Amino acid sequence: MAENGPQPCSTTVPQNSGSGQGRISEWVKLNVGGTTFMSTRTTLCRDPKSFLYRLVQEEPDLNTDKDENGAFLIDRDPTYFGPVLNYLRHGKLVINKDLAEEGVLEEAEFYNITELIKLVKEKLKERDAKQNQNFTKSVYRVLQCSEEELTQIVSAMSDGWKFEQLVNIGSQYNYGSEDHAEFLCVVSKECPNNINGTESESTDKVKVRYKGLF
């Protein structure tokens, strides 16, 4: 969010103007897609690189027509202009639930409001990350293996499986005088979450051998 407030607009008064004559009004009318908005020049000049800043200058470098009421004509969707104008007013991003963030981003890019573009993109990233969490789940597998088999398990992991934990459960077999250590190897993988719950339960059950798992 921008730390600096609205930038001053060029609204000087001609030297020979009468009382109030020739003075540029602080209030500006905008006709966005057939809907009239009113705001101050100070608000519209918040971003000195924006389309709106250039539009309301005393000598604008944009060729924009006006309607019969003197409002600047802008051929954009008025529905998504509200969040843009509100950001210029108070520096915060507020989007109604019935509006798509992509639509606000499109307008922010058209009006070239740098900080607003950053805020909307951050909001989109947060939304997408939250959706990804809702549609994925962690599947864990526990494999019982010997010390000799452990290396094979680690080298055989693929397709998104990753090692989580290794637990030494001691020796279960004794051949002669040698102990053969046994381990529990815990692995995990991020899998799509089956919303309908029709996924076979057998795919999530604990397996005690590594063969055929990866």
UniProtKB/TrEMBL annotation:
Protein source organism: Mytilus galloprovincialis (Mediterranean mussel)
GO CC, one annotated term: Cul3-RING ubiquitin ligase complex
UniProt name for this protein: BTB domain-containing protein
UniProt xrefs under Pfam families: BTB_2 (PF02214)
Listed GO MF terms: cullin family protein binding
PANTHER family: INSOMNIAC, ISOFORM B, POTASSIUM CHANNEL TETRAMERISATION DOMAIN CONTAINING PROTEIN
InterPro entries for the chain: BTB/POZ_dom (IPR000210), SKP1/BTB/POZ_sf (IPR011333), T1-type_BTB (IPR003131)
GO biological process: one example: protein homooligomerization
Biased amino acid composition, Polar residues: 7-18
Annotated ranges, domain BTB: 26-128
Origin: domain of life: Eukaryota
Region (Disordered): 1-24
